[in-house]
Amino acid sequence: MTNRVEYLRSPTAIRERCNELFELAQADQLPYFRVDLTQLDAVADYVIAVIREHYPDLDVPFHSRWRHFEVGNIPRVRQLEQAIESRSKIEQAKAKFDLVIPSVLLDAGAGDRWKYYEAATQQTWMRSEGLAIASFDAFCQGAFSKHAYQADAETLKQITPEQIGAFFQVSSENPLVGLEGRSALLQKLGYTIEQSPDLFGNVPRPGNLVDYLIGHADQGKLSAVVVLNAVLIGLGEIWSGRLSIEGVNLGDVWKHSSLSGDHLVPFHKLSQWLTYSLLEPLQDLGLKIIDLDQMTGLPEYRNGGLCLDLGLLQLKDPKLAEIPHAADSELIVEWRALTVCLLDRIAATIRKKLGLTPESLPLVKVLQGGTWTAGRKIAAVLRPGGTPPIQISSDGTVF
User: Fold this and answer.
1) Bridge partners of residue 204, in order along the sequence
2) 320 φ, ψ to 5°?
3) Which of 17, 59, 184, 376 is deepest in the core (most CB within 10 A)?
C-alpha cells in the first residue's frame, strides 16, 4: 500500500485538506460558499443551549449509534445485554460489534417519507432513530446470521434488497431511499471481511475485530486512530464506484479543483462514526480510549446544515439550494470540507465558554450534545420535516 493511500486514510489528511479549502473560503476564493466567522459566538451559544437542554450536568455521552438505540428512553441495549449475559465479556463485545457495524452501514439518509413501526413499544420512528431500531430488531431476529445475536460473512453475502425491505417495512407507501445501496453494502461487508482473516477471523464475522483491537492496545490504552485505521483497511472495499489509487478503494474521498496537488479531500464520515460507535464496547472491556480529538467532526447534513442555517456558511448562489446535488459534486465536497473545519472551531469556542478542556469535552461529545442535535433542531424550525438546507442525491452510502 502506498504512503499516499495511508495518508488519505488519516485524520491528519482530513484536517489538512479541508483546511486548505477553508483558507480559500476565508479569502473568498471558493466557487460556492463563503464563511462568516462573526457568527461563531452565536452558533456556539445556540449549541450550548441545546447541550444544557439535553445534558444539564454537561455529562455528555459519545456521538455514536448507541444513542439511537436508546431513543425514547427504552432500555433496548440492556435487553440485548441480558440476552447475551451468559457469554464471556469478549463475546459480548463481539456481539455488539456484530450489531453496530451493519447498523451503521444501514444508516445513510432514509428520506422524509419512510418510518418504522416498533411492535414492542407500539411507537413509530423516522430517520436515523428509525433505521437504528429497524436494524436492531433485524439483528435480534437473526437477519445477519444463522446464530442468535450475531452476524457472519456467509449470511451477510446473501442479503437481498427484498429481505432488507421486509425487515425495514418498505412499501410503495413507505419508501426507503437507497434500498439497493444498503443491501449491496451488507453483501459487500460479507465478502470483504472474508478477505481479512487477520482482522475478522478464519470464520469471518464483524465482531472478531474485537480480538484484533485488543491485540493492538498498549498497557490497557487503545488509540481511537488505531480503531479508525482498522475500519478503513478492513472495510475499505465495500464502497462502490469510489476513487482508487493503484487498485486500492479510497472510500469517502472526493475531488475539488480548488485543491492543490491531486485535488483529493478525504472525509471518511461513516467510517469515523462507526469508529465512535465501536469505542463503547471496547471501554466496557476496560480499555482506555486515547487520541479522541485526533478524529474529526462528521461532515454530514446535520452538522453542515447547522453551519449553513445559522449563517457561518453562506451559499453564494442561493438558487443552488433548490436543486439536488450528487455526493461527488464540488458544491457538496466544499460544504463538507468547510463543515469539518467549522466543527473544530465551534468545539473550541464552546469549551472556552464553558471552561472545559478537550479531555473533558472531546469533539465526539460536542457532536452529540451538540452540533448534530442543534442542526436537527434548527432545520425543524426553518423547513417542514426538518429537511437539510441543501438537497443531496443520496445512494444510501454517504449521508
Assistant:
1) none
2) -70, -15
3) 17
